[in-house]
Amino acid sequence: MYTILSSEILGYNTVQYFSLGTWASLHYLSGCVDGVMPAVNCTGPPQRHVALELWESGWQDPDWLAKADFLGSERAVQTSGSMGFSGVEGMFVMGRTRQNALERSGLHLSYYGNFNASWFNPADYAPHVSEVNMSKLLTCAESNPPGAQNYIQATGDADGVETRNGVIVYKCWQEKWWVAPACRNNPSSCIAVITLRGWGNREISQQAFFHNMPLAIASALEFPEYVELNVQHQSFLFWWTPDSTFVEYDAVLVEMPPWNPSEQKQGILRSSMKQSMLTTGTSPILETAADRAWGLARALRLSDSNVNDLLLLSVQNGDDYYAAACTWLKANQHVWDEWVPDKTKCSIGRGMVNSQGDFVTSRADAVDCTICPAGRASTKSSDSRLCTKCTPGFYQGTFGMSECNLCELGTMAVEEGAIQCDQCRLGEYANRTGMSFCYRCGAGSGQENLWTTSQEIDAEGESVVIKLQGAVSESYCHCDSGTFLWEGRCEVCMEGASCVGADRLELLPGYFSREELPGDVYNCFDERICPGGPAGTCAAGRDTSSVACADCKEGFREGNDMVCEACGDGDHAFFSMVVVVIIGASGSSGGSAVMAAGCQQLISIVQMLTVVKRFDIGWREPLESVLFSVEVLSFDVDMLSVSCVTQPGPVGLFTLRALMIPMLVLVALGVHLCYLLCTRSKTFQMSNLLRTIGSIVLVIFIILFSMLLAPYQCNEHPNGKMTLKRYKTVYCNGADDHLAMLLIGGFACSMPIIFLVVVTWTVMLELPRRIARSDTQFLAACGFLIKRFRPGMEMASVFFLIRNACVALCPVVSNRPGQLLMMSIILYVNTVMVAFFQPWRFLICNVLDNVLLGGMMVILILGSIAVQESVPQEMSTVALVFLVLMGLCILGSICYGAYKYFQQKYRKQFRYFLCHQKNAAGSMARLLKMELEKRLPGTKTFIDCDDLNDLTRLFSYVGQDTQTFLVLCSPDILTRKWCVGEMVTAKANGVNTMLLTWPSFVFPDETFIAKYPTMVPDITELTKYGIGLEDVEDAFRWLTTVPHQPLPEQISPTSTHFMISSLVSDGRSSPIPKSTHQIQFDTNFPVLVDPANSEAVAAAMVLASLLKPALLGSNLPLPFIQLSGVEVPHEATRSLLICSSGCFKSEQLQTWLLEASCLPECCMIPVITEEAFEMPSEAFFMELQTTSKLTDNQLQLFVMVIRALFQEIAVVFVPQSYASTHQDLQLRAKQAASRLIANLQPLEQKVSKLQSRFGEQSSVEEIWRARSSMMVTKGSEEPEDCNKELTPTEYSDGAYFPRDVVSEAL
């Protein structure tokens, strides 16, 4: 009925839910999720708003009352009293059973007294237990009826209960029926009472005991069986009303003794159950959201007869509740008309509206009520209410309120209907409540926009000014931030000043203004000079009358930390320090080149950092202190504490700085003269003096040049005035002191420019001419320019000087982005140049230079970010990290240089340095290297093809990294300029030297020395390495005094053993014997070599040594050098022929080849060991016929042997080659081993085939000309039929090989 009325009559959208129960409905209407407590889940708003037929026993339950108290009146459900009828639970009797008893005996079974079995027999009129279908009942264990413990306590009937598993339960007959004492003797005759899952068992069991009622109670399986059994027997049941389930069977409640609350509290349930008033519940928001729906719910009232009529109608309509309600409402409009609220009678919080929804003041114009919105109040008007707008000065921000509120102090409401009062804006105030406007600060002054309202508060001990809206009095009016109160007016604050408000001005750290002109602000560019604070504040010891606190007070001087300190006795000690430094520079020997280069790069980077500091990026601590500390190297004359002696003024101070170069020259000259006087030298050493002066100027060039450019660098101050960056008391106006400094600076700048021009002329023009004349004295004088760089890169000194000049010019650029861009371009160009040309003499110096330049570029990038993004602290931290890394790199390079210095002095890298002529002694040098390293494990022997990667380091290896310098004196070694340069270096550095002289070597005499420049004209190229002709001549004379030992005329393993022993003992062992008993190893693998060719023998010994490990594990014998005069072993299976220039003219080699051609199993492979080797030509064989001691048959066989020999592909093994490193020779030895291990055809078989082809009558010429199957060298004529067998492929060593063989090898 409520759904129909609220939707069809009141027009609400209503959704209906059934069978929620009282407990769930209370929770739903309180906003609890899914109708469940705890109360913390009741967060609302409720989604269900009306609940009907709430049982009083539910909402009066103590648990619910506690939860409702927790929720509060704004969230808990509201109840509206009785709905006009009540609900009750108990035992009911059906109409048929009741009527049967009345008709048969007049017994009223609706009264408990008529059930007493002592007087009556009610079982005669009702169905018995025996008539009930037992299969539709639950067992007592399944239904578990409650109340057994309470039953035994209230009745003492021990036979009615039993104990199971320690729990007292009802004792059931046939496990399904609890039988009352009145019929316990005959349970089947008891009246059957059907309930549902033990419901009502507690009450009925006690009532049956106390009133002697012959009842038996059982529980149906489920609700359908419960209804079915009770409808079938129409007897007694436990049920409640109102309900429509059994209404058509005229079920009547059995009247028990009246409800006795005292017995009920004791658990005695003999009396009837308490009737429960049924009420209506509404959600707490319903009255506001839908007042008429709320009014309908509270007004709905029904009598018991009305309820019964409705229940019957629902049954008659097939349980169609909607149809039953609709039928009843149509028939009883006179009843529900009183429930429907009047539309125009508005409740509190609402007001009348017309049909358009507009608020009206007359009920005659009203058609409905609506809630008053924010900005209005619900006011009483006759028997209804109006929604009236709040007047100016009042507000209402909540819906459904009955009055408006006054605006508080500091707020205002300008118009009617304000939902809130606005705070007075900045610069305004309201000093009364209920105001509709705010007063303006500074009204009538013409500066109203510069005034604000603010308040000074104490925040953690610090005074802070905050702006304040909603000011409540005029005392909050002050000048706005960015302005300060001066002579009654608000003046705009300049850059560098902090006007936080409250009429105060404070200078930021690094800024200054005079006390009489606080708004005239200067930038001090250093917080240590101007600490900030009130106007007229300078750091301690500084003159407040000077521009921007630039000068110290009289009697004070500026220290390194920018603090003015009192003058002391030690302020003139710098003169002596300068003298000591220059004397040390003049007398030093240069030390390690790496350490010197590292120190020089350190000074350059420090000076670059000094220039970067002048960009005024605004670095933060601790980087600021680090950059300030490096300015010590700026050689500022202020370090002389001139201000403690006199006050020269800015012009005088700049003049002193401009005269630095002349003063340094004079000091250096004086020190040099003193040095000459002390040493009693009569020679004026101009080169040393020039080198000293040049080194000093080169070191301080950046700072010197940048100091002279000071008059061209200006700073602009917040007040619009400009002063010099370096001389802050001089205004940049082109007049007075500034004009004088411009003239002096322009003249002084010519000195570094002249120095740059002279250096450029010297390096580009004069130096090449002096090198051509071998003027080593000139090179010594220019050593400060060129010794840092490797030969050929002398121009790098000019480049670096130009770079330094450009770096010094960077601060002249007027803005920071331009300065950073210019410096970045310089560093980028410098980095590319160093990376591409690698000008420094040592690789580590090139690497260090690029690392330092990279670090400088990172610092510049960080500076750019700090300027643009205003995050100097973060960028300063990162820049400091890179600065530390750069310092560690410099320190590492210096430590590395020191390590190399001591290593070169006490532990040389190379035990021996082999100075040799490659084409005359290359193989011998390789043999010596292998044997020396084998004899002295753990040592290294220098040979250029293995150990020389940088030609510019050749002489440093000799002078610094070598313990013993061994010269292999082949006949023409003195004509090789590099070998001569190595000898000069060894002599100059006192390296222990030994000579191994070839038999044909002749020591140089004075005639040779005099003619040497014409014999070797390119010797002058050594001048760029500091080696002149005089040094060469002295070295030649020195050679005659060096210990030497002769090389044997014939090299053999035995002579080599003695020679190595002699070298290892530094020549102190007995000399090598000219003839010794040669040990002949008895193996089947001879290596045939021309014994008269020492280079060929050395190559053979190198090859044999490398072959031995490669042949391990094979079945082949180990190779040995065939000694002169010994026959080839008859059991030889493998053999190598060492092919050297003129080897086939050797009678010994001819004999060995003829012997080998007769051995049945000897397989031979030719090995080419000299690049100059040529195949025997026809002219060679013609010459051989006239000079050889061989007979014609032997000569014919010799030619066939050569032809047969070169049917095998020759192995190229040239130790003399510059490309033949140890690894390359090992690879070629492995290739030769793989050839030897493979199946080879014996030389004897190849010769036999040739003999059968040509016969014995063929001449040598015929046999040689028919050489189609021979291998040919590059340049020889290829036979016509060669292409049929082989397609030649050119090989890099000068030979041709079959294409398929080359492909297979690749």
TrEMBL record:
Keywords: Membrane, Transmembrane, Transmembrane helix
Annotated Gene3D superfamilies: Glycine betaine-binding periplasmic protein, domain 2 (3.40.190.100), Periplasmic binding protein-like II (3.40.190.10), Tumor Necrosis Factor Receptor, subunit A, domain 2 (2.10.50.10)
Residue spans crossing the bilayer: 654-677, 689-712, 739-764, 795-814, 820-840, 847-867, 879-899
Keyword Phosphoprotein annotated: no
Protein name: TIR domain-containing protein
